[in-house]
Amino acid sequence: MIENVPGAAEAARLDAADPLRRFRAQFDLPDGLIYLDGNSLGALPHRSIARASRTVAGEWGRTLIDSWNDHGWIDLPITAGLRIAPLVGALPDEVVVADTVSTNLFKLAGAALALRPGRRAIVTDAANFPTDVYILEGLAALRGGIELRRVAHDQVFAALDSDVAALCLSHVDYRTARIEDMAVLTRAAHAVGALAIWDLSHSVGAIPIDLNAAEADFAVGCGYKYLNGGPGAPAFLFVARRHQEAARNPLSGWLGHAQPFAFDGSYRPASGIRRFVTSSPPVISLSVLDESLQIFAETDMAALRAKSQAQSDMLIRLVEAGCKGLGLALASPRDPDRRGSHVLFDHEEGYAVVQALKRRGMVGDFRVPNGIRLGIAPLYNSYADIAHAAAHLAAVLRRREYDAPELRVRAAVT
Amino acid sequence: MIENVPGAAEAARLDAADPLRRFRAQFDLPDGLIYLDGNSLGALPHRSIARASRTVAGEWGRTLIDSWNDHGWIDLPITAGLRIAPLVGALPDEVVVADTVSTNLFKLAGAALALRPGRRAIVTDAANFPTDVYILEGLAALRGGIELRRVAHDQVFAALDSDVAALCLSHVDYRTARIEDMAVLTRAAHAVGALAIWDLSHSVGAIPIDLNAAEADFAVGCGYKYLNGGPGAPAFLFVARRHQEAARNPLSGWLGHAQPFAFDGSYRPASGIRRFVTSSPPVISLSVLDESLQIFAETDMAALRAKSQAQSDMLIRLVEAGCKGLGLALASPRDPDRRGSHVLFDHEEGYAVVQALKRRGMVGDFRVPNGIRLGIAPLYNSYADIAHAAAHLAAVLRRREYDAPELRVRAAVT
Question: Global pTM?
Fold first, then answer.
């Protein structure tokens, strides 16, 4: 810890008055750690420890194969989807948990191409989350004859024309935290007859989302960031009800079959969202996600958003006051209504700065080329975390702690 | 339990002399349960309980995002693959754990089409495991212009010609347990210039496999059957070293990128097998698989195979002696060298028979249309299990316990 933390008194008052304060105790966070990386890997809920143990020792160990029915494993993709639906403005039968964000995007972009026969283009922002772009590249190469239009952010509208089958964008930018206008962009896609596919990975669980109000067609999202589902937790996908009977999952596996245990010789898709499940889910990881999601039923996204905005505003204010003249620049939108739940600051020694912060017991992350990314998870981050984070960052810059040569060696994951 | 079990004395002698006997104590099996369904869901190793707890509370909870490096999460797909490689006759750098069998088959069949440009056909056995057929259907529909040749088992050779890109078969048939001659069929595929893709789901961990001796090109396999990786455990895939630099993963996600954290604008495949990883693995489920696999390092596949054959021979002998005239027919090869590690008996009331066995504390499974499938996992099944299983089956048939009407209502998973 450090002394004379600017904003500490204000933070103490805000924490005392915080209506979400009680949630922090539901998480197993190491004492003293300032964890501003819940946007990369959400913290561990205590209840999830018990659920993992129950799934392994109590279900797998006691009832073995019968657990698929007796403990509802077979329905977990739907059950967990039901918990996510209200967080994204979906109907209960529009969300399912399966596979990974990348694989789900492949399924939905493939389905979009089939729903728009004759159209040969997919549009995305060149600065979209890289794996989304890579997946679209792979799909285009496999399909053949598909043009992937990777355009600058301000060229997205201009790239839409009658040859476009789908527009794929992230709701919140993984670097800057800029929020896209989902309704406006979806309308622009629809105006040329294209489908809109949204990646909610950096927004779900942190900011309110209303897919149906925006008339979104498809969406995917991540289970292990703000949803706290655990490392590599399964992802989810959304298919608007109006598309469910026509859309085909190109990864047509047995668990999306109309009768999985009929062992038919040919694939017949299940009705509804279930056809977008491909095969057996990783039950232990999925159970843990299902458990973590239950925390969200105890609050609402408006309350989480209000706290997140207050915290990110405070973080920007304290950092800018404490780091004046030290080479730091805000790279996120200043308008809190255009900013998600993380804040990016650029600094030319960004990588080493993040390492120096870690030595002080503060975890953020680095994003190329020089971004210091600080994520705010309003379920468990306190205002005290915010004030201390700003003070640590100022101290690292003022004392040039990032100059230590051992901080410049990059590990595999940063 | 039942009295006067035929073969009980023989079983006791064989159990006393069993060189693998000590392994049963490594599994958490309910007292008195006769579990012959390890080919659907392997039993829980004690060590995996501890590993799940360590991964959740000890790693995720204590070191959060840093666990990707500090606890080797990022390398788990490779680490677990290294443990599987010797079980399937692969080189250490030819196997990786990722996703599901269905998704991995999609990747490899897609890669095969790209490696054989101009060829328009994929050949499979119409009686192949259904999800394999469904996945090939989905791939063919997405690609367009692909002919999926689903042929009778005895027509596989005739279906191979110069238009075939890939031959996809299961090593062991999920119903009959018939073992395919991997070397002969691979050679036949190569003779017409096609690639051979093998599904090892029903053989890996139960019978010796030598992919490289057979010159197999690609393979996939299941983590939750004989490998005891837990419900829905991640699957694995094999790519022969000679194909690794040319083969492209159509599910080209960030974790298969040459530099995942460079966040490049375009996909560049990692060198070697790593390019067949798509995205973040479900770490909790994957850790449990990684732990369960370590048991195999304490024995060898020849010893496991010898016990499995002795047990399946004994099972057939005792069942046929005890069930004479009761409508049961062996549907698996009688020759133990052509039979995997499960045995299928047909009975017209097969479904209700399996339910009646369950009431007696014996778990097998039912496979349409009328198969009673009994799986032998030599790591934990005893000869006493085999003798008791045969006695229970005989009792159910002799007493017509399958006539109980409540046994005829089918649950979602059987």
Answer: 0.97
